[in-house]
Amino acid sequence: MPDEDGAPFFAYAARGELCVQCCADCGEPRFPPRPCCPHCQSFDCLWKKLSGRGRIWSYVLPHPPLLPAYAAQAPYNVVLVELADAPRIRLVGNLVAAADAALNSVPPERIRIGAPVKAAFHATEGGLTVVRWLLERP
Predict the structure, then answer these.
(1) Which helix (H) or strand (E) holds 8?
(2) What pTM was computed for the model?
(3) d(C-alpha 76, C-alpha 104), whole Å
(4) Cβ-Cβ contacts under 8 Å for 113 (sequence gap 6 or more)
(5) Which letter does DSSP use for residue 72 in this model?
(6) pLDDT per residue as tens digits for the range 94-111
(7) Burial (CB count <10 Å: 0-12, 13-18, 19+), residue 117
(8) How would you list the strands of the sheet with 116-123, edge to edge?
(9) Is residue 14 within 8 Å of 6, Cβ to Cβ?
């Protein structure tokens, strides 16, 4: 469940927007969201909408799946995406063929470090919207 600091991230995601918390004083973006800026120690923040674009910085294909609930989807991917608008921020997610596609919808051989991706938003059964990633050039 999102905490008080992270709740706006998920609220924006539910609207199809990728937003990150930024310091209202020094302007530095930060993720995960937290009460205090690690750069200037200010407690003032705002949320900035980003383009939703990035590149795969790293990835892993869990074998076997670490959680039994994911066994039927193995092999699936977990990608670490460096955001184009905020290169020091990297988000964890899955590379999928479409926002609501299965976690194993992209063949592992298509995943490349450095590949350009764009954000897609998926509403989970629990009502939380999560960020997933689509290849810019399918």
Answers:
(1) helix 7-14
(2) 0.92
(3) 4
(4) 56, 57, 58, 59
(5) G
(6) 999 999 999 999 999 999
(7) buried
(8) 90-93, 78-83, 53-60, 116-123, 129-135
(9) no
